[in-house]
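PROTOCOL LOG
Step 1. Enter all chains and additional molecules of the complex.
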Amino acid sequence: MDQEGRQRVVIENVKPNINCGAYPVKRVTGEKVVVTADVFADGHDTIAAEILYRNSKDNTWKTSPMKFVDNDLWDGSFRVEEEGSCLFTIRGWVDHFTTWQKDLVKRIDAGQDVSVELMIGADMIDKNAKNANGDDQKKLLNFSDKIRSGNAGVAFDDELSLLMGLYADKSAATVFQQEYEVWVERHRALFSSWYELFPRSASPNPGRHGTFKDVERLLPDISEMGFDVIYLPPIHPIGITNRKGKNNSTEAGPEDPGSPWAIGSKEGGHKSIHPELGSMDDFKELIRKAGDFGIEIALDIACQCSPDHPYVKEHPEWFKWRPDGTVQYAENPPKKYQDVLPINFETENWKKLWDELRSVILFWIDNGVKIFRVDNPHTKPFGFWEWLIKDIKKEYPEVIFLAEAFTRPKVMYRLAKAGFTQSYTYFTWRNTKDEFKEYLTELTKRDAREFYRPNFWTNTPDILPENLQYGGRAAFISRFVLAATLSSNYGIYGPSYEICNNTGIEDKEEYLNSEKYEIKHWDRNKSGNIKDIIKKVNIIRKENSALQTTFNIEFYDSDNRYLLCYGKVSEDKSNIIVVVVNLNFFHKQSGSVKIPIKKLGIPEKQSYLVHELLSDKRLMWQGSENFVELDPETSPASIFKIYKRLKREDDFDYFM
Amino acid sequence: MDQEGRQRVVIENVKPNINCGAYPVKRVTGEKVVVTADVFADGHDTIAAEILYRNSKDNTWKTSPMKFVDNDLWDGSFRVEEEGSCLFTIRGWVDHFTTWQKDLVKRIDAGQDVSVELMIGADMIDKNAKNANGDDQKKLLNFSDKIRSGNAGVAFDDELSLLMGLYADKSAATVFQQEYEVWVERHRALFSSWYELFPRSASPNPGRHGTFKDVERLLPDISEMGFDVIYLPPIHPIGITNRKGKNNSTEAGPEDPGSPWAIGSKEGGHKSIHPELGSMDDFKELIRKAGDFGIEIALDIACQCSPDHPYVKEHPEWFKWRPDGTVQYAENPPKKYQDVLPINFETENWKKLWDELRSVILFWIDNGVKIFRVDNPHTKPFGFWEWLIKDIKKEYPEVIFLAEAFTRPKVMYRLAKAGFTQSYTYFTWRNTKDEFKEYLTELTKRDAREFYRPNFWTNTPDILPENLQYGGRAAFISRFVLAATLSSNYGIYGPSYEICNNTGIEDKEEYLNSEKYEIKHWDRNKSGNIKDIIKKVNIIRKENSALQTTFNIEFYDSDNRYLLCYGKVSEDKSNIIVVVVNLNFFHKQSGSVKIPIKKLGIPEKQSYLVHELLSDKRLMWQGSENFVELDPETSPASIFKIYKRLKREDDFDYFM
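Step 2. Run joint prediction.
Step 3. Record the structure below.
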């Protein structure tokens, strides 16, 4: 019979949900989804609620109990273990037996005759017993016998309560009207260390164009520093027409290699390799070799073409043509980007265009690439990304897309909702204590936490930020520690970063003589480089699970405005990391930082051991306030691992 | 051809929406709906957006333009004029012509050759001209001719911009994926003055049971006070079994009339009239006579039965039966309400039950009742109300339901979402300045504004609040002014209120010798009554449109913690009311109140006339800070009408 009218529980305000369920929540395997909702019923009966969740391919729900928090709010959680799509919703019902138990106490306390009440309770037990079998059924019937014969005390037996919950009648339960989706991705979606390099600058011999083979030779060095993703700018043939010269000049000399983002020449387009870099076999060999070091190769996807790209002739309808018969190049009036043609996504032939661009991704997946950094996704339609990423991930859930959008916040968030695994951020321009607190709070404690995975970049070929241009070596160290410990995903553009190259264009956050327009021959071990510190920090990240998520960050107070202090604690609370960074790159700073020892389970009146991991020094701290001094010359940042004595009689456990 | 892939604009975060559109937004005829949304597109093109709205019965959308606010947020509004259901959504598109205009300025400023650009613009105009006819088409073609021939200046012509907007190509426009509903109700849903009375106490002769005829005789008095809704507690036959005596005692004497909420006897149930009140014809005559005074009669709907109600025998399955064969009466253990049986909404026969209860409403609608005050709706399933009210309003959109729920906030809000027109509130227990500010802000500036229409009650037969019990006559005046000026819907339970009856039960917020359990013979003109003030306030409410909505309230600062000051301004800003209430009922208070004269359009350096409407005194105020003194003995509250000089040469307009 239709139960609809008997469903007395209502469920609303179910979180997390992205745009009312239009987009999935994001997690990686092993992560928890904390679910909250307002759940209540008419009247005064006790209610119960649980999360229903399942892999989208399964037909049966798993359940996870919810508990009452306050003001009709309930919460609970479940853990996602499998890559792919998962669904969840909430079920709530009136818990008549618990209601009966609570009322019975009040009646007994008021000295009322409860003989009829006991019969009512016994009947309830008998009814649930019909859903049970074997021992459980016997136990239930035994309970009801006792209660019916006047034994009120047994009504509150824990086992009885447990069994009545287990065999509760949920026929009139309410299931929330929507199922929300969770996209579960592999662990690297949340924990990754990116290194961007131009293969054409990888040659050890000045005067020779770098190749994939040259990149292979760099693998031990990059692996030693601790990176696990190497991202290559576009590796495709570069156009000749309107090629840019050094420093983005409109006149290219015959030796100028052009910008790799001016994709396509008579030698091919997005599915071809620039001949001077090597062959497809060389590329696949690089992927294999990198894999031996635990490193993945990420490619750049830039949906744009040089005027020489084969698409221009094969599909003129994918470009804009001007009344004078010329093709429209990229512009941001009055600025012109003559070496690049934007693709006209408003073309009536958009279906074929979308299919072709998908085929580019599938081509590189076929050749072993599983990570794509997408160039300027915010200048292509959101609907395209939504379709593309969903379609690709259906067959290849392991594929990771990083959105390189530096634009307005709602645009960046919408790209993440559309499916991008990771996103560039405003980290590069956050410098003060308040800025970091506010920004990280927005990213980790508000709605964005559910769908936006930050990837903190210190620099890119396009961006040499003010802090690095003027902050000296201390800035390179501090900004690295910040990126790699604030966010579990981060990246640097090297070797400019590790050799502290800060030669910019005055009043612009750009590199002078940018590698985008010329081949460089770097001294990768230039004196003053910070490779050792990078290596240490990456080891620390690998050894401390607290640093393997972005979302557990908490800021701790300090009495010095330049000392930024924050903590990260693993879910099981066994791993505690506290980072202090001197945000003043020019002067030594000291002050006391306030550790929430009570919350961390450290006794108030006991000293505790801390291990500063960058210097490998051990210190004793006492209470919540502790002194820290950071000198930009010698130690611009500290990473403390905190040991707590679990039991007074235990030794410190250095390896917990 | 399928346009989906060419839709570049995205729309999200559309407000107002209630539970992602599961419930309608509420308005009365003539009210505005302000709509906001995040609207943006990929890239840097200029976009445009508009609201689409229509009566649910119409097939064609009307449009209302939206404008860019900030940070990708857009807003706009539309006005609802017709009772019933209305739908709205949002449409956005890339505005290529405006983009072209903006770029053209930049190109010209940079000294670029724009001859090809002018051809592009002219082509756009020609394309839109195809959508135009007659003069408009001619004008457009004339513009394109000029532009094509090199006249760049005409590209920015206002008429051209207007026509290009009018005939814009919206073929690739995005329409937001959901349509949200607005329930439009009649004006009284928002602006009403309720008076609750027990007809059985309306007799002028002590010793005689009051009748509908007696209520008729009270109409001139109640109308003179300015009320437009008279709400009667249940008028049905009252049960005998377990009838309650005076002061809710379990022993009723033979003279005790019982609680009207113990509905049903052998004389009938929810569709019958208690014989001592009169006949159905008397009742209909009362409705007619009240109508002559502009007053509507509201009935009480209490879904519960006395043990003698005919339903108990006809539908035993609608009640709970105990194992000893007795029927379950209402309880909140250990409290017992033996004269009332709750209806068992969990009955398997719920469909028949729902239909029967609906038939009760329809029965009274047939007999002329259009307003129902629903007793304790929070103890009946939300789904029942949702179904019932939607069903009734489909045929009778003019019917008003007031939810008498004093319970947890989310429960009260959910009932409003389920369809209740008006709701009781926590006003009765709000006493301090901070409490009023916080509560009114919650009700008028947050989500609740869209679906919850407060009705502020000073007292009810169940509630004699502390403030009235101990605050003396000043409290009765102040609380009345507060209810009637904070909220456009308010109610009092009389004549206890206007004769300042404050005889309560100590330590309980209840009346001693409550009218719920006995027939009273009131001296309706008892000395010290506040009928004159009630009359004045109701006239002020009728003459000042600023007081005819709750949602325009703004609190103004005062330097005295007991002086609560707030303003209400009509939508066209022509009517400005400022209320100051002394929240200290025992001592005179004075201080300065801060009027936001700049916002109200009053010049800083000019004095302005204010008219204190309760005392009919005129004052001159200067600047924003003005002195106010309120004496609980003589003037516990002031209602100022503020006159602003529109033009320096004008006289004061006393009647604007």
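Step 4. Note key features.
Chain B touches chain A through 64 residues (CB under 8 Å).
Residues 466-486 of chain B form the longest helix (21 residues).
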